[in-house]
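Notes from hallway chat w/ T.B., transcribed later so I don't forget. T.B. wanted the structure written out for a chain they're using in a teaching module, and asked if we could keep both sequence and structure tokens in one place. Agreed to drop them here.
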Amino acid sequence: MKRVLITGATSGIGKSLVDIYIDNGYEVVATGRDLTKLATLKKQYPSIHTLSFGITQLQQVLDAAEEVNSIDQLILNAGNCEYMETVNPFDSALFERVIRTNLLSVGYCLEAFLPKIKRNGQIGIVSSSVTYLAFTQSQAYGASKAGLNYLARSLSVDLANQDIGVSLIQPGFVETPLTDKNTFDMPGKVTSEFAAKAIFKGMQARKHSIKFPTLFINILRLLSTLPFALWRKIAIYLVNK
């Protein structure tokens, strides 16, 4: 039986990933901060192994990793999204908080769990489609996800000789408790179940890049080919509309 470790496994995409991996015969190590939610998950799936730690606390992550022997797949899904209501004055505390949660925590998890991955294993790093374009109020969130893009691609090069693959996962809008807080339109929004199926399929195929939904991603990719000066004018217009 193959084993997968999923961070942020108690809600949203993470919970849907637990469902689909269980359905496909995997042994699941589910991680999260909320002991109550982890207990609920354990009640639903008595066979899973749960780990509770804060992803921004390196020692907690390292201590939790002591309970894991080996894994075939590692999906680094946990993260947060906070938008900057203003950039002048600049909220450096918010910026630090988002970077620590979305980017530095991935480094902590890699230190702890990368040595546990078997040869021919696979890492999935959940970034975002926000990195295609510069969007308003996304300075912290976008920067953290852009960092993950580079990290994933660089890891893919250096882990090749260990036969460990890396999948960069860039979802569009996904219906989760996190996006439920958004007050703006979310074109192309998909369910967390749709997202989990796309991620599972891509991970099994050892794809370097997993992007969905296709139409929304293709529109973003097309817009990203515009000269920045033109996109900037469009973005400013949309902000002031």
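Follow-up for T.B.: The chain has one domain: 3-240. Might be a good example for the class.
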